[in-house]
Hints:
Strand 1 and strand 2 form a beta hairpin. The chain is globular and about 75 Å long. It has 9 helices and 18 strands. It folds into 2 domains: 37-123, Immunoglobulin-like (Sandwich), CATH 2.60.40; 137-382, Rossmann fold. Helix 3 (228-250) crosses helix 4 (267-276). Helices cover 25% and strands 25% of the residues. It is of the alpha/beta class.
Amino acid sequence: MLRYVAIAVVAGMVLAGPGLAQPPGRQRPPEFESVRVAGDRKITFKVLAPKATSVKLSAGDIPGNNQGADLKKDDRGVWEVTVGPVPPGAYRYHFNIDGVAVVDPKNPATSESNQNTWSLVTVPGDFSAWKDVPHGAVAQITYPSKTLEKARRAHVYTPPGYEKSLDSYPVFYLLHGASDSDNSWSTVGRAGVILDNLIAAGKARPMIVVMPAGHTGVFQWGGGGKPFDKQMEEFGDDFSRDLRPLVEKTYRVKGGRANRAIAGLSMGGAQALNVAFSKLADYGYVGVFSSGVFGIVGGGAGNAQPNRQWEESRKADLDNAELKKGLKLVWFGCGEKDFLIETSRGTVKMLKSHGFEVVNHETGGGHTWDKWREYLNDFAPQLFAE
């Protein structure tokens, strides 16, 4: 009888969780929510670091938090700060604890960059918020790149009903910016949710959205890693020779220029221009978010004179009237406070000088994810209209 009682006690300890099985004398850590969004859209962040001397919130996209916010410690060793109210959207953050960047250990929601991972918090209330509508799926795929001789990753959104349908769909290639990854558009960028909401509202056609990895190696601001220009070139080769053929073979993708779009933000916008204007007969829609032809207006270290090489190397295609006939939309979006606003304007001016009709959408704001979500929400409904 005593044997069965002992077994029951041990089983109860296991089912009750690790708290009851802690060694004698060890105090349980305090219970708290590490990130909480209140009804007034203020966000409270907390982290346990009893031995730390300084904790700061790093979340550059949160308005007013470019320099970070200092947390204060309570008598339990829990550090806390409240910011806001914060506009609706998704925000990356991490804690800087005594000079060390730390993701939120109590928040499983994350977003990847090229070299690191961020914690993620969403503030509901705008077009990127989850709604009770039919939802598509975002899949992570890995493919062999013969061009780069290594495995590569991408994320692919398929619209609601794709799995049960036999229909084919148009395809939209959506590229991320420098230092980000193929995970970024579907996490902090909310691309899948935005498309779900647009499709449910009848504002956008169901489409497949492919989000490739824009970097071909480690990227570091200020040098280090693989050179930026080399990565731009390698991305174009991998995209055209490996990724796009794989996507259009594997997924039920409609053929033809009228069913193919490409867009990107910042570095991805420059890549979208490179890809589209190298094979303009293949693309019916081109979007450029907070970007343009890098160096087109000059300035910057070692590049005082405007870079005309991009235009000169594509002059025959830029002046080809036949190629323009099937090009349905060239769309630019950029914030007036964006550090690439003159690059965007210079590229628009250059394309117009070659007879292209360009929609130039300038907004408030700068080089931040809230603008890129907004541009996607504006651009996607214009794609693949019958």
